[in-house]
Amino acid sequence: MELKLARNTINAKPRPIQLDKIEEILLKDGQKIFYFDKENTHKDLVALVEYFEAKDFSVYLREVKYGLDEGDYMYEVHIL
């Protein structure tokens, strides 16, 4: 599964990341907070949460608003 990391600037394109890479980072660091772009579907993020919960990680997903517009948000996923 491929997800898109949050943009660093408004006009930038989101960078893709593979599920394998996320798992590799977690095995190395133990825990991590990832910020995903709004272009990801909620269904994909729920699948990400379920995948890591099945591997005995604790996963917290929330929507972070950074502006007043409805489209100014990203997803924060904290995996422990």
Describe the fold and architecture.
With 80 residues, the protein is of the alpha+beta class. The chain has one domain (2-79). It is built from two helices and five strands. The protein has a three-stranded antiparallel beta sheet with strand order 3-5-4. It has a two-stranded antiparallel ribbon with strand order 1-2. Pfam families: HP0268.
Overall mean pLDDT? 94
- The helix content, as a percent range, equals 25-40%
Globally, the shape reads globular
The tally of domains stands at: 1
Order of helical and strand elements: EEHEHEE
Span from first to last CA?
Answer: 20 Å
CA-atom Rg in angstroms: 13 Å
Largest β-sheet summary: 3 strands, antiparallel
Q: Please state the structural category.
A: alpha+beta
Percent strand equals 25-35%
- Give the low-pLDDT segments: none
Please count the beta strands (DSSP E, at least 2 residues each): 5
Organism: Sulfurospirillum tamanense
Protein name: HP0268 domain-containing protein
InterPro entries: HP0268 (IPR040748)
Give the SSE layout.
Layout: E1 2-4, E2 16-18, H1 19-29, E3 32-36, H2 42-54, E4 59-65, E5 73-79
Antiparallel strand pairs: 1-2, 3-5, 4-5
Offer a few descriptive terms:
two-stranded antiparallel sheet, 80 residues, alpha+beta, 5 strands
Brief overview, please?
With 80 residues, the protein is an alpha+beta fold.
